[in-house]
Specification:
Subcellular location: Cytoplasm
Shape: elongated
Largest sheet: 2 strands, antiparallel
Number of strands: 2
Protein name: Cu(I)-responsive transcriptional regulator
Order of helices and strands: HHEEHHHHH
GO molecular function, one term: DNA-binding transcription factor activity
Main location: cytoplasm
Number of helices: 7
Low-confidence stretches: 143-148
Keywords: Cytoplasm, DNA-binding, Transcription, Transcription regulation
Number of domains: 2
């Protein structure tokens, strides 16, 4: 099958297939006599594996490791679990950062009247040297509300 068919069958765009080949994540496809890339079912299976790993948020280097382990029938599952556990920790850290971002923006939005006046707590908050100070105020506000 050609690159368009492989892309359709795997769910990975032709552009990404070429990129994965350029960074040696997948083998460079064989070429037909006319110079077109040709892919087989095993190539599509590898591309699907990569797509699924990307869907789960694994970075390229971890996908490279997982792909190598997946293709090694003598592997230890402990290695796969270690990579996955490390990725879960990275996801937890990103989730915590996103929660802080959401909470900060929610706090700023609640304090913005959103009217025709130029005063805007959102812009003032973003312009601060350290936006984390907003969280300190937010925590203090929450503590005062709980105390009353």
């Amino acid at each position: 099958m050609n690159i368009g068919q492989a892309a359709s069958a795997s769910g990975v765009s032709a552009k990404m297939i070429r990129y994965y080949e350029s960074i040696d994540l997948v083998q460079v496809a064989a070429r037909s006599d006319s110079g077109y890339r040709t892919y087989g079912d095993s190539d599509v299976h590898v591309l699907r594996f990569i797509r699924q790993a990307r869907t789960l948020g694994f970075p390229i280097e971890q996908i490279r490791q997982l792909l190598s382990l997946w293709q090694d029938r003598d592997r230890a599952s402990a290695e796969v679990k270690a990579i996955t556990t490390r990725h879960i920790g990275e996801l937890d850290a990103r989730i915590a950062e996103l929660v802080i971002m959401r909470d900060t923006l929610s706090y700023l939005a609640r304090h913005c009247s959103g009217d025709r006046r130029p005063h805007c707590p959102i812009l003032e908050g973003i312009s601060r040297p350290d936006i984390r100070q907003i969280l300190d105020h937010k925590t203090a506000d929450r503590g005062a509300a709980l105390a009353s």
